[in-house]
Amino acid sequence: MSEAKTRGVHHVGLTVRDLATTVAFFVDVLGFEELGGQPAYPAAFVSDGHTVLTLWQATEPATAAPFDRKRHLGLHHLALAVSPEVLDALGDRLPQVGGCEIEFPPEPVGAGPSRHMMVELPGSGIRVELRAEA
């Protein structure tokens, strides 16, 4: 097997419907730090200390086509690692967060013991898997 030429993910860039709402979710709900942004672009940069996300405001959010994971090429979902305790806490909290669509609550991955949940983030149209390894 040859050695990989890459060294992991540098950052992930996502276009969202509502930049302020999406940034607020990452900062206020998931505890990310806002690293800055480019207001003229507009874009914001957030990080959990391991992963950096670049969030871009869609130019025409009202007419932007939502992603259909079965019909469009591109990002199917973003998976973020969490502890089992955080997964349980988010499973309780996220149904109360306005605009957060729960695709499925915390459940085993296959036969387990890992568990995950899938949500669409408010203001973004982005599906995020929160995954806890046993």
Account of the 3D structure:
The protein is α/β, with parallel strands linked by helices and 134 residues long. It has one domain: 2,3-Dihydroxybiphenyl 1,2-Dioxygenase, domain 1. 16% of the residues lie in helices and 34% in strands. The chain contains two helices and eight strands, in the order βαββββαβββ. The chain has a four-stranded mixed beta sheet, with helices on one face. A four-stranded mixed beta sheet has the order 5-8-7-6, with helices on one face. The longest helix is centred in the N-terminal third of the chain and has 11 residues. It is globular and about 45 Å long. The mean pLDDT is 92.
Summarize the structure.
The chain has 134 residues and is of the alpha/beta class. It has two helices and eight strands; from the N terminus they run βαββββαβββ.
Task: For this entry, give a set of tags.
single chain; alpha/beta; 2,3-Dihydroxybiphenyl 1,2-Dioxygenase, domain 1; 4-stranded mixed β-sheet; 134 residues
SSE order and pairing:
Elements: E1 12-16, H1 19-29, E2 33-38, E3 43-47, E4 52-57, E5 78-81, H2 84-93, E6 101-108, E7 115-120, E8 127-132
Parallel strand pairs: 1-4, 5-8
Antiparallel strand pairs: 2-3, 3-4, 6-7, 7-8
Q: Any idea how many domains? A: 1
In helices, the fraction of residues equals 10-25%
Terminal-residue CA separation: 29 Å
Give unreliable regions as ranges: none
> How does the helix and strand content classify structurally?
alpha/beta
Q: Could you give the count of β-strands?
A: 8
- Per CATH, the class reads Alpha Beta
